[in-house]
Amino acid sequence: MGFFIVFAMIFMQIYTMRSAKVPAVIVFGDSSVDAGNNNHLQTVLKSNHRPYGRDFFGGKATGRFSNGRVPTDFISESFGLRPFVPAYFDTSYNMSDFATGVCFASAGTGYDNATSDVLSVIPLWKEVEYYKEYQKKLRSYLGEQKANTVLSEAVYLISMGTNDFLENYYTLSDRRSQYNINQYQDFLGNIAGSLIKELYSLGARKISLGGLPPMGCLPLERTTSFIAGNGDTCNEDYNKVALSFNGKLGGLVKRLNGELSGSKIVFSNPYAIFQNIVRKPSAYGFETAAVACCSTGLFEMGYMCDQYNPFTCSDANKYVFWDSFHPSEKTNRIISEHLFKTVLSKLLS
């Protein structure tokens, strides 16, 4: 990374910290928000190689499943903090960095512990354990009183759930033998509620619970639909499940706001804006939503999306999706800015 890029990033960090509207952003979730924690795991689900990160600061492949930034990076910037949230396991950062933002997310995880087992990634309960460890380090770094203020005023972002359905329930038989789809949604919803309650007991007061996107429209699912002879279309059954689960999460948020005194919990639902982009990509400046930028754009992600593939597009801004499972940086920006204006900004009042 060049001197001027490093200098610009340091200047940007100092400026944004002075104008910050909240003291920190703390992230839990899956590959939609993983900033590179999976780099340090024995798992095949990694993206710490080109062309991932080619549009990130300095063109660095950080482990984010994107050509650039992920939603929580844009949200951090919108709150007046630095324009990216560092991964907790990234040794190039320390507590002075993590004091204003930290990411515990792990690609491939979900609410269900069985989901994280599929690709040997960090289960949700372990993300919370790392957060507890972080709390101790923060108190040691800032002092008890200042750290407690940061922890109570910080915004907590939760983004997961897609893997529970696509990589677990619909792929493996164990959960399908235990639950019908409605029961499994309730099972996951109960875990989401327990997570929020635990974070609340640990001092969190401003929490955003993320919803599911139209997961049946991911290029991987469209490819699967095409192979099954259904044409190049979204899997509407999966989309209906996403809508149903989002409805349950919305109800959970409403209930918890009434139960947890002094809390401000919001439901950040990306479904509608994401669906609009997928249905009318040209209205948002995209050329296609059917295939992704990386490789053939039909089924590749992670290690199958590498710098040696000759099919990868030259301009990711023309594509709604970066790889077969993850949005491009441009899509992440549009969705994040929409959610900030319509939902997340309420955490400032």
The low-pLDDT segments are 1-8, 11-18
Q: Report the C-alpha radius of gyration, rounded.
A: 19 Å
Please identify the top-level CATH class. Alpha Beta
Topology order in helix (H) and strand (E) letters = HEHHEHHHEHHHEHHEHH
Task: Quickly count the domains.
Answer: 1
Strand order of the largest sheet: 2-1-3-4-5
Question: What is the CATH topology?
Answer: Rossmann fold
What does the overall shape look like? globular
Question: What features would you highlight for this structure?
Answer:
single chain, 349 residues, alpha/beta, Rossmann fold, five-stranded parallel sheet, 13 helices, 5 strands, globular
Characterize the structure shown.
With 349 residues, the protein is an alpha/beta fold. It has a single domain (3-219, 238-277), classed as Rossmann fold (3-Layer(aba) Sandwich). The chain is built from 13 helices and 5 strands. It has a 5-stranded parallel sheet with strand order 2-1-3-4-5, with helices on both faces. α2 (71-78) crosses α13, α5 (124-142) packs across α6 and α9 (181-201) runs parallel beside α11 (236-259).
What's the gist of this structure?
With 349 residues, the protein is α/β, with parallel strands linked by helices. It has helices at residues 3-18, 71-78, 95-98, 113-118, 124-142, 144-153, 162-169, 174-178, 181-201, 219-227, 236-259, 271-279, 329-342; strands at 25-29, 101-103, 155-159, 206-210, 264-268.
Please write out the topology:
Blueprint: H1 3-18, E1 25-29, H2 71-78, H3 95-98, E2 101-103, H4 113-118, H5 124-142, H6 144-153, E3 155-159, H7 162-169, H8 174-178, H9 181-201, E4 206-210, H10 219-227, H11 236-259, E5 264-268, H12 271-279, H13 329-342
Parallel strand pairs: 1-2, 1-3, 3-4, 4-5
Helix pairs in contact: 2-13, 5-6, 9-11
